[in-house]
Automatic annotation (TrEMBL):
InterPro entries: Bact_2-comp_sensor_kinase, HATPase_C_sf, Sig_transdc_His_kin_internal. GO terms for cellular component: membrane. It comes from the Bacteria. This is Histidine kinase. PANTHER family: SENSOR HISTIDINE KINASE YPDA (PTHR34220). The chain crosses the membrane at residues 12-29, 41-62, 74-91, 111-130. Residues 149-227 form the Signal transduction histidine kinase internal region domain. It comes from Dyadobacter pollutisoli. Keywords: Coiled coil, Kinase, Membrane, Transferase, Transmembrane, Transmembrane helix. It holds the Pfam family His_kinase.
């Protein structure tokens, strides 16, 4: 048997509490000296009527309304509702007439029968509110599932895109028979380990992402050596240790800089700066590029940036600001992100 969820347990507890109070109401509000009467109605009858009201409430809320109220059988629901209330009247009348005839003579009959109608109306309101809450919950779950599926797809795009770029770098090192090929492969191994085993969760510690980013930049330094002016500066305060971030969120900006900021460019440079203060992340990538060369790149150009832009929109709505400026052969990316 499936275990009840916490909200369901709370709902059951509230129902038990409310009905317990209703059934014991005469013994709470009245006293033995008054024969536990409320408004001329004996306490024992109020308790017995409470069970009748309970039957009306749950029979309508969990059977009649869900089965008949919606769709073409609405007219059957109206007939069944009338019949339910009439039956409750008949049962109450038989109890009162046989055990409490003085109630009928005292003019308090309206307090005997009217509660059946009120309880029925309360059950309708309860059912409609519960259905509305359930629909809203399902809508949120469906939205979360669509979001998770979309993010999974976007992440699946990142890995092949990353591998394509890095393997291209490896080929360059192999062709030049560079002594940096072996350490570069070891760096790649570390990066692959992170991507395969540590990015499966929704988010990762900021320190892990920074370590990954640093390894990627070191890998690029091995490839380009002194031919490209590469600088990576970090300013991280103690609050960063308690924050997490979407995995592989920052590296596409750096990938883009190495893809378009090297080659037949005079005095190429790539400056990367990351700052985290009081849970606010600021990330900047600044590089020069050849505008004509950029237009001749392969069709995969831009995939990483579009990917990260979409993920930011999905995961950090109203918590990020991304600016991409291209002017005078300079490409400048600034990302401000509130870590959660």
């Amino acid at each position: 048997m499936a275990e009840l969820s916490k909200p369901v347990k709370w709902e059951i507890a509230i129902h038990v509490l409310v009905w317990t109070v209703i059934l014991l109401l005469p013994y709470i509000l009245s006293s033995a000296g008054e024969h536990y009467m409320i408004g001329g109605i004996p306490g024992s009858f109020i308790t017995m009527a409470g069970f009748i009201h309970m039957a009306i409430f749950y029979f309508n809320a969990f059977f009649l309304y869900p089965k008949l109220a919606n769709g073409w059988r609405w007219w059957l629901y109206i007939l069944a509702s009338i019949l339910l209330i009439v039956v409750s009247f008949m049962i109450k009348y038989q109890i009162v007439a046989s055990q409490f005839p003085e109630v009928l003579r005292s003019g308090s009959a309206q307090f005997v029968f009217a509660p059946s109608v009120f309880v029925f109306m309360a059950s309708v309101i309860y059912r409609r509110v519960a259905d509305s809450i359930q629909k809203e919950k399902q809508k949120k779950e469906q939205h979360a599932q669509r979001l998770a599926a979309e993010l999974k797809f976007l992440r699946s795009q990142i890995n092949p895109h990353f591998l394509f770029n890095v393997l291209t770098n490896m080929v360059s090192l192999a062709r030049s028979k560079s002594e940096h090929l072996e350490p570069a492969l070891l760096r790649l191994s570390d990066l692959m380990r992170y991507m395969l085993y540590e990015t499966k969760g929704e988010k990762v510690p900021v320190s892990k992402e920074l370590e990954y980013l640093g390894s990627y930049i070191e890998l690029q330094k091995l490839r380009f050596g002194d031919t490209v002016d590469i600088a990576f500066k970090t300013e991280v305060d103690d609050t960063a240790a308690g924050h997490e971030i979407e995995p592989l969120l920052l590296v596409p900006f750096v990938e883009n800089a190495f893809k378009h900021g090297v080659g037949l460019i005079e005095n190429p440079y790539i400056y990367i700066r990351l700052q985290i203060r009081n849970g606010a992340l600021q990330f900047e990538v600044n590089n020069n590029y050849d505008e004509q060369g950029m237009a001749q790149k392969d069709d995969s150009s831009g995939i990483g940036l579009e990917n990260v832009r979409t993920r930011l929109t999905l995961l950090y709505p109203k918590k990020h600001e991304l600016r991409i400026d291209k002017s005078d052969s300079t490409f400048h990316v600034t990302l401000n992100l509130t870590l959660t």
